[in-house]
Input
Amino acid sequence: MTKRSTISIPSIMTNNTILDTPGNGGGINASRLFTASCFALVTTAFAFAIRAGILGKLAAEFGLSDTQLGYINQMAILGFPIATMVGGWLYNEFGPKRMMYLALATHVVGILMTIFAGDFWTLLLSNFFIGFGNGTVEAACNPMISNMFKNNQTTMLNKFHVWFPGGIFLGALLMHLFGDIAWQYQIALMLIPTVVYGYLFIGQKFPDRESSGQAPLEENLKGIFSPLYLFMILCMVLTANTELSTQQWVERLLAKTGGASPMLILALVTGLMAVGRYFAGPVVHRLNPTGVLWGGAIFSAVGIWLMSVSTGGMSYVAAVLFAIGVCYFWPTMLGFTGENIPKSGALGMSLMGGAGMFATAIAQPVVGGWLDKARATAQAKGLDGDAADLVAGQETLSHLLTFPLILIVAFGALWFYMRARK
Output
């Protein structure tokens, strides 16, 4: 390692490159590939943060209900699992290079279509393209990083996934600072990390399937249909919704809590998540992945419950507890899969992430419907304006609380199972 390197790289790497090995096509600048992957994930994160911040503006400009906003969120998120579900196969067949160029193209098309959207249907299609680009990034970068850092998969995946909450943190701050500008200009901010990761990836050599040591498809299928993998898929459905459905609707859930800014709450949550993931190594080593997941379920349940009953400054306290809870969910689920179900390979890792996003996509109109129904009920009882919105947000949070409560039981059982297995 040279002094310039900023990440921990296994011994097969020197001077920021992987030494020539059979089939890898020459030296690979692993540090640059990792950095480019992080910027690609920032683009994904900006999509979540900026969309969360403009939902109110879209509702006003296009006359949309929360249920319709839920369908826009759904299309944005639905593109993700579609990309990841085919992405595992594409990774095995074509490698990460072509996948990242596909991600770049769909990101640019989706962002530009959203900026120039003139109606609800164009917003649906453009957000699908952005979601597809997000999923392609995940499908390519997760196995690529996992393969380059075989001896430290969970830690390096956590460091990579620093930039999902980290990017949301930056995006939320930008939305808070530039909240008064037109939503089209806010969407245009997504082009900044897109251009950066495109520049860093173009012209680089990537690991190929042979040098990465990927198992053949038949071995992948054996891992995917194992009981442990299927159990983790079900848990991924719940962890993804606990984290992402709450964050995606933060502006609509917490806008009327009084004295608390939803975008600052989102920045607080994701900023803490970014710091926690960066220092994930000691935490994962001390508690082990199953202990991290179990503790995360407990903290996220307490955080969401406190959000549902708090107003003003206490909303920030609730946000801190929620951040501690969801901090390690996504990367630890992927790291657990790579380490304990290695036969599933890139396909299994892609399907794991895809299942989480697919379930989150399905939930978006449901969450919007919860808000609409709770608001209508409050208005029928004589409440209106901010009071009705406050009740609707708190009632919807009480529904979201169901997800981490189930996870407390599931991850507790997993902890005892893995302890007995070892």
Remarks:
- Confidence is low (pLDDT under 50) at residues 1-26.
- Residues 28-421 form a domain with the Growth Hormone; Chain: A; fold (CATH 1.20.1250.20).
